[in-house]
Amino acid sequence: MILPRGIEPHVRKILWDYRKMAFVSGPRQVGKTTFAKRLLARAGGGIYFNWDVATDQKKLAKDPYFYESVDRDPKQSFLVVLDEIHKYRRWKSYLKGAFDRSAQEFSFLVTGSGRLDLYSKGGDSLMGRYLGITMFPLTVGELTSSEGSFEGFTHALREPPSASARARDAFTHLLELNGFPEPFSRSERQFLNSWTAERTKLLVREDIRDATSIRQLSLVEMLTHLLPEKVGGPLSIASMREDLGVAFETVRDWVAILHQFYYSFPLLPYSTSLTRALRKASKVYLFDWSEVPEESLRLENMVALHLQKAVMTWNARGEGRVAVRYLRDREKDEVDFVITERDRPICLVECKLSETSPHPALVSYQRKLKVPVAVQLIGTQGICRKLTTDAGILWVISADRWLRALP
Q1: Which of 69, 103, 134 is the last residue of a domain?
Q2: Around Cβ 293, how many Cβ atoms within 10 Å?
Q3: Distance from C-alpha of 396 to C-alpha of 227, rounded to nearest angstrom
Q4: What is the C-alpha to C-alpha distance for residues 179 and 197, in angstroms, rounded to an integer?
Q5: Which of 8, 60, 125, 153 pairs with 101 at a CA distance of 20 to 30 A?
Q6: Final residue in a domain of this structure, among 106, 134, 162
Q7: What's the number of domains the chain is made of?
Q8: Which residue range(s) make up the domain with 60?
Q9: φ, ψ (nearest 5 deg) of residue 269
Q10: In the beta sheet, which residues pair with residue 386?
Q11: Which pTM was predicted?
């Protein structure tokens, strides 16, 4: 089953409207290659290259501009897909030369399981030649064909989407499994367990090994076993340093590498205007939320990824300068998420499995920060309550319904 991928319109715009290289990065096995081949089939003409295939490496070594010799209709667009090309030592120089030489006749789609925007720093600059976008795991909005624009989201803050059986099914399926296409499609918990273990092992023993000089890969693997237990609270590098028996700086660097390779992602605290707010400690969430053992934190992680995907998508499309943070003060009063536009909070979000009474910290922070909309997302279906507070609106609403407004 080929599942819909919401990034396609924006990738097309980068390639054929903006006439730039499209850099599509994302977690291992999130569907980048499938997406690239599907786009290639629809492009009218093109060629697929994979650096992990030995014969493709030989092809490039023999003729760097091998795609120019392919028979093609000059009246049709011709797409060159370069998969995992960032593993080539001289890839930046190669892409710069290929684009400068061939951009008038060819379009270039570059995919990779590492952060291509980080890889592109240093050496020959690719600045001005590409635009990047991240492919995330499947989300409720993507599975229900929601456009998920930022304008639509701001409207949904006042008037949430209607209830949908399709959204309910998608939400339930995602929470039970994860948003990666293969385990989502197979819908078998036993397969998911095996798939997750194998994916993590390959991520550490192949992707991270090949791209870094880390020798203690077994300890990095152990770190991936520790992080699911840390979801939901400020991350303590010091406690993991003791568990792993290595230096503080080493653990900090390893966590950053796991972020770079899309195993996890950080969420920073929001502290503007709050005198006693935490200002340094970040939270950590996983791209595969099925690894989180506690159900309430698994729901929080799933919502965190939906929000992270939304703000990164809106920013990549140029729809706004949006961010997602969390709120926590020194008394440990906390709200899971705050969405900001140009550093101004526009929405607070708290996650609960079934509790419908407004969380006191949500009400308190909405008043302190004068946030016009607060939302308490409930894992239970069929809930939609609109409350009025001193600052504005507070929704208590089923997560499956509200998440439809996101891309």
Answers
A1: 134
A2: 10
A3: 30
A4: 16
A5: 8
A6: 134
A7: 2
A8: 8-134
A9: -75, 150
A10: 395
A11: 0.94
